[in-house]
From TrEMBL:
The keyword Kinase does not apply. The lineage of its organism: Bacteria, Pseudomonadati, Pseudomonadota, Gammaproteobacteria, Alteromonadales. Gene3D superfamilies: AF1531-like domain. Pfam families: HHH_3. Keywords: Signal. GO terms for cellular component: type II protein secretion system complex. GO terms for biological process: protein secretion by the type II secretion system. This is Helix-hairpin-helix domain-containing protein.
Length: 102
C-alpha cells in the first residue's frame, strides 16, 4: 500500500510540474501586452469626458479647465502649456506625455 501511495504521488507530481512552470511565463507576457496599449487623446479636439477618461490624474473639473484654456489660447501647441492649469505640474505631464496628442 505504501508503494502505491508513493508511486501515485510521484506520477501526480510529474504531471503537475510542467503546468506550474508554464503559468509564470504566460502571465508576464499578458501583462506586458496589456501595458503596451495606451489610449491617446488629442487635447485640441477632445471633450471633457474623453480627457478625464484618457488622462491619469485628470477628473471632470481639470478636464473642463483644459478645455477652457484651449479656447482661450486657440489650441495647444506644446505640452508645457498645460502647466498653466491649476493642479497640472511636471509629474502629471510626465505620467500622461505618451497619451497626449496635438
Amino acid at each position: 500500500m505504501l508503494r502505491k501511495t508513493a508511486l501515485s504521488a510521484v506520477l501526480m507530481g510529474a504531471t503537475l510540474l510542467p503546468c506550474a512552470y508554464a503559468m509564470p511565463s504566460v502571465q508576464p507576457t499578458q501583462q506586458a501586452a496589456a501595458q503596451e496599449v495606451v489610449m491617446k487623446v488629442n487635447v485640441n479636439t477632445a471633450s471633457a469626458a474623453e480627457l478625464s477618461m484618457a488622462l491619469t490624474g485628470v477628473g471632470t473639473k481639470r478636464a473642463e479647465a483644459i478645455i477652457e484654456l484651449r479656447e482661450k489660447l486657440g489650441g495647444f501647441t506644446e505640452l508645457n502649456q498645460l502647466m498653466q492649469i491649476k493642479g497640472v505640474g511636471p509629474r502629471l505631464l510626465e505620467l500622461n506625455k505618451d497619451r497626449i496628442e496635438f
